[in-house]
Amino acid sequence: MLLGGIRYLLPVIKAAHEQGCYVITADYLPDNIAHKYSDEYVNVSIIDKEAVLRVAQEKQIDGIMSFGVDPGVISASYVQENMGLPSFGPYESICILQNKDCFRAFLSEHGFNVPKAKGYSNINDVLSDQDRFDYPVIVKPTDSAGSKGVTRVDDNSQLKKAVEHAFDKSFSGHIIIEDFVEKQGCSSDTDSFSVNGELKFISFNAQRFDVNAANPYTPAAYSWPSTFTKDQESCLTSEIQRLISLLGMRTCVYNIETRIGANGKPYIMELTPRGGGNRLCEMLNYATGVDMITAITRYVVGDSVPMIEQKPYNGHWAEVILHAEKDGLFDHIEISKGFSAEIVEEDLWVSKGDYVNSFEGANNAIGTLVLKFEDREVMEKSICDIPSWLKVKVN
């Protein structure tokens, strides 16, 4: 059973079918694209763990996960534990990882570098604290994904609007306000894999943003390798391994966001027990040949996990998240002639005349470009100035 119905589940469904599995997709939106590719669809709220458990028991499933779909991760873990199915880790640990407030508290308790943060459940408490914040701060829901509800606040005048926005995007009615960690180079947001609690494959990339987007904190592109030094990657790897060991994690695919602060300290900003959105596992398969999707699909139904091992990047890779700068009717995309990269894949999800929204969150993406470059310098130049060679035309 796969919780959710988004496009990023399609390669998971394909991998499951290749393993001979019968695939059930589940959410409350029957028109979602993944349901067209699964063998069966059930209508259930994926944030209602008891309802998901009842359906899973009725269907007598052999495995469950919420790949690329943050709201279903806790429900999937709850079903794994209650039905004795292969699990990614203890249910209590999954709950910590899925709640930004609890996660920051856990990091602090165990001596990790962590920005100062505080959680809130109502706006009045926030406003009474507003003079205590060391601006800039980041305001965000404790339980949302895809950068929805996230705002940087530089002074008191911006706080109320940002807090209202974060509460509006929270499922549980809880938000967190934390110090904004100025970073060296680019932050990293990419996927990794552990087997029996041991990291077998770890990756770092360079996460890029569109400063002109409606939400400038929604990732707009990624490139591999990262901008970290080898020593910084080694330090982060050690800290990530320490974290998953403390939490008792098992065999799992993770989406992990890290950065090196301007103070030189490494930070684990997010670690979620699921494959990331934006096709990150697929990109890593292109770049390294490591197939984490097949591995995790086999694990959740109790089959043996194929060999997962650390492999180098086969060249310099980038993924561009296609998006519109404004609301309107999509017309076409233009890529400059003579663009100096191999376009490995162009995956466009809209057609001419479709209505598209400005880029406020990952759900507003309209497609992806997979690119391979001959050298790093050319890649950096291209990915740092995407508008110079790519135009998304909207009327």
What do you see in this structure?
The chain is an alpha+beta fold and 395 residues long. It folds into 3 domains: 2-85, Rossmann fold (3-Layer(aba) Sandwich); 116-179, 2-Layer Sandwich (Dna Ligase, domain 1); 188-394, ATP-grasp fold, B domain (D-amino Acid Aminotransferase, Chain A, domain 1, 2-Layer Sandwich), CATH 3.30.470. 28% of the residues lie in helices and 26% in strands. It has helices at residues 10-18, 49-59, 73-83, 91-98, 100-109, 123-129, 159-169, 230-246, 280-288, 292-300, 376-383; strands at residues 2-3, 24-27, 40-43, 117-120, 137-141, 151-153, 175-179, 188-195, 198-201, 206-209, 219-224, 252-260, 266-272, 316-322, 328-335, 342-348, 355-356, 367-373, 390-394. Strands 10-11-14-18-16 form a 5-stranded antiparallel beta sheet. The chain has a 4-stranded antiparallel beta sheet with strand order 4-7-5-6, with helices on both faces. Helix 1 links the parallel strand 1 and strand 2 (24-27). Helix 2 (49-59) crosses helix 3 (73-83). The longest helix has 17 residues, at 230-246. The protein is globular. The mean pLDDT is 94.
Summed up, the domain count is 3
Reading the helices and strands in chain order gives EHEEHHHHEHEEHEEEEEHEEHHEEEEEHE
Task: Note the total helix count.
Answer: 11
How would the global form be characterised? globular
Strand-residue proportion: 25-35%
CATH class of the largest domain: Alpha Beta
Mean pLDDT: 94
Measured on Cα atoms, how large is the radius of gyration? 20 Å
